Amino acid sequence: MPTHDLPLLDEKYGIATDLSPCHISLVGGYVVGGHVPIEIVNRLIAEKPPITGVTLPGMPPGSPGMNGKKAEPFTIYEIAKSSRKVYAVV
User: In this predicted model, what pLDDT tens digit does every residue of 26-67 receive, in sequence order?
Assistant: First the structure.
């Protein structure tokens, strides 16, 4: 069911407050938070790791769908209840 209550979804899917994305999608059985580049989404679906999904916190300029220039690499984090790990840096 669509909702605008992102804190509720963050809690439901185990996304830490400081890793909170601007939106959440469900893709291939995974949670994808924020403006994650498609190559990372494709990697996630192909690898099928035992995690809830991935998130790119905030709304970084230059990320897919965002205006502006990319100022630094994007750090994409795993969404996993038992750990906090970087999934990719692009």
Answer: 999 999 998 999 999 999 999 999 999 999 998 877 777 777
Instruction: For residue 1, tell me if it sits in a domain.
Output: no
Phi, psi of 12 (to 5 degrees): -60, -40
How many CB atoms sit inside 10 A of residue 3's CB?
A: 9
Structural domain total, the chain: 1
Mean pLDDT in residue range 63-85: 84
53 assigned to some structural domain: yes
| 38 located within any domain | yes
The token duo for 64 is 């897919």
